[in-house]
Amino acid sequence: MAWRKRGNARNITEAFKEISRLSMEDVTLHKSVSSETIVGMEDAADLIDKAVRDKIPVTVVGDYDVDGISSTAILWYMLRYLGINAHLRLPRRYTEGYGLSMRVVDEVDEGLLITVDNGIAAIEPIRCAKEKGLRVIILDHHLPGKELPNADVIVDPHIAPEQSGFSDYCGAGLAFKLSQLLIDDNRFLKKMCALAAVGTIADVVPLVGDNHCIAREGLRYINQREIPVGLLALINATGLKKIDEQNIGFTIAPMLNAAGRLEDTGAEKSLELLIMEDYAEAEEKAYELIEINEKRKSLVKSAMERAHKYIRDNHMEEKNPICIYDQELLSGIAGLLAGRLAEEYQTPAIVLAPSGQEGTIKGSGRTYGGVHLRNLLERAQEYQLNYGGHEKAAGLGLRKGNLSSFTEKLELLLKDYNRPEQGEYLYDLEVNAEEIPRIMEDLEKYAPFGEGNPRPVIRVDRILLLPQAGKLYRLLGNQKEHIRLLGREFSVMAFHKAAEYIEMGEPDVINVIGYLVHTNYRRNSQIEIEAIAFEESEKKENESTALQQEMLLHFMQFAEERR
After folding, report:
1. Per-residue model confidence (pLDDT) at position 1
2. Beta strands in 367-521 (DSSP E)
3. 397 and 457 fall within a common domain
4. Which of 44, 64, 137, 354 keeps 20 to 30 A from 180, CA to CA?
């Protein structure tokens, strides 16, 4: 595999500008967008004020993912602060599906109905809600269709992006902005910002502008532990110390998502955790969610094995997009599989599973290579029962008998799609090992990183690995498929590359390209390179001698400790 520098950057600032095409000022807002500038937000606040004055009952309908759960929790805290004990309702994944359903509307007899992280596509349910005499507020960030619901207030920045101060909020971000408009209590808002940061990072919306501000400030409050009790209990249960966007995206969010993926009403467990106020109860719930997430991991592993077999058996390796149906699959983990397959095959991927209704299937898709996934599905809508989402991710349902025609139509639409060139790895900046602490300080200016604000890829040559307890590495993962290479001042973490390193002959000096991150290895925060690729490095004569001396010292220390 060839390694190639993709630009001409000489430092982190130049590298960042090259890959993001943004300036530091574009990303790192020092002052958040005023809630008043978001179209419909003041009207929503007025309607809630009226509900408070008139003691009108309020029902909040969220979603079963992290964004929907955290945004529902924010609204619950906000309404309780204002004196309303709101009824909370999350859709049941397997028996109701995404968003506001007629079944949910039937449960609400009076008052104010607020949808968050959903609602913009609920044309018929909201029509029925209005016929029942309900007032309706929609807080949503999904793309609207040709027809808008007849709600009293719609807050969706995509309706009028030119008028809104910022358009890329998730549901939790919008809920937080509404809280800012209604409540002037800094301590309270810090806790809500922490929840909004979790939802914003988990929902993979662009981490620029006000989203970057929410995520940055929310992470600060999380690390200061100025957060709701339930979130505190979950973080403590993981053993994590310093929390960054990596920890939220790959540890906290999956734990909050897992129950809602596997169980019809599982998302309620995560919502219960986030609004708990007794630490002992919250701790018990946190460990329950961790256990469920371990089960989710096992199911995903088995499903990935079946997916690879399906692709091989049906000669789909070169198909664009990858579209598979797994009759053994829980639809709640379809999105996870789609994301992994999209990355692996470098093409959009759609994974479908039984819907629970005779003759129909449903699933999720994830994009790759700049394909707008929702628009792609719209062009094949004649074969679908429903679809929705945005550029990067989407959900859909169709009759099982239409699967072949649907797949053929997508392949036709993507006939000109070219997968990225294989056989080379790109990096943005080459640095020396001794520069890494300073480079990490420079990176922190742009953190947190995420969609629209990518972390630069660095190259570091001649990293000396030193034995600890007699070994140059630690094997990790249930199948020992991951490896942590132990350097003098920092380690190298390589996921799914343990066999590659061992087959290489376990070299003690390597070149690496990857991402600089903070890790909580052995519960201590330290700098680590998350490797994209590595190779054996040719040792210099003086380097080899120094390495031998240092290895001898470590061996003697190890032997002394074992006596």
Report:
1. 65
2. 386-389, 393-399, 424-427, 429-431, 458-464, 473-476, 482-486, 491-494, 509-519
3. no
4. 64
